[in-house]
Write a sequence for this structure.
């Protein structure tokens, strides 16, 4: 558990600088890591092909990404709950979204690859699949591919495709981009926010989009 702080103390320390902010970030990151790891260990069915150390690395990624999100959203915290509860929900939402993505990754990889030309790869139907939902999935992936190719900066595109499509470790992506892991996490966060915003602008309902791929 992180050091006990009041909600105001968390906000003050995280918005401070130097050692005070550094200590708060260390405490919060430790808490986020524990929360993410506990969640992932409870979802071993989705991660059955991953070794324990890989699950730990994934939890580290979620903790670091959640730190960035929390720092960017500090001014939205209203104090309706404990700060750590609010932070807990953020890291679990990131983890849950990633597990959903992994469930339909085999469907989406080809159509997300910017190097591919022509129409998105057709979705392979199974006896249990719903043809209408399969069509909608293909439409969503085509829309996402277009956003990635046309709306992201080159570095955002490289980070998103490299980490989320090709499955590269963040550390390796950082080497490719000649930067550090924190900057890669920031590129990923900004890229996904932009993809989401562009899809919503085009009329896609994001909860409905996610529901299309649950259980896939």
């Amino acid at each position: 558990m992180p050091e006990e702080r009041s909600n105001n103390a968390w906000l003050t320390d995280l918005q401070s600088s130097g050692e005070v902010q550094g200590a708060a970030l260390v405490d919060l990151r430790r808490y986020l890591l524990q929360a993410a790891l506990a969640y992932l260990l409870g979802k071993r069915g989705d991660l059955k092909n991953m070794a324990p150390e890989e699950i730990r690395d994934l939890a580290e990624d979620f903790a670091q990404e959640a730190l960035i999100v929390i720092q960017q959203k500090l001014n939205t915290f209203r104090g309706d709950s404990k700060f750590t509860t609010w932070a807990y929900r953020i890291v679990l939402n990131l983890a849950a979204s990633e597990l959903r993505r992994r469930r339909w990754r085999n469907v989406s990889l080809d159509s997300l690859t910017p190097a591919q030309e022509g129409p998105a790869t057709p979705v392979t139907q199974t006896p249990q699949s719903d043809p209408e939902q399969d069509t909608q999935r293909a439409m969503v992936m085509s829309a996402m591919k277009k956003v990635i190719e046309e709306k992201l900066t080159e570095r955002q595109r490289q980070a998103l495709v490299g980490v989320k499509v090709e499955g590269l470790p963040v550390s390796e992506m950082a080497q490719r981009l000649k930067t550090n892991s924190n900057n890669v996490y920031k590129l990923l966060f900004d890229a996904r926010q932009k993809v989401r915003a562009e899809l919503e602008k085009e009329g896609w309902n994001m909860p409905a989009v996610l529901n299309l791929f649950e259980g896939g």
In short: The radius of gyration is 18 Å. DSSP finds ten helices and no strands in the chain. The chain has two domains: 7-103, 105-213.
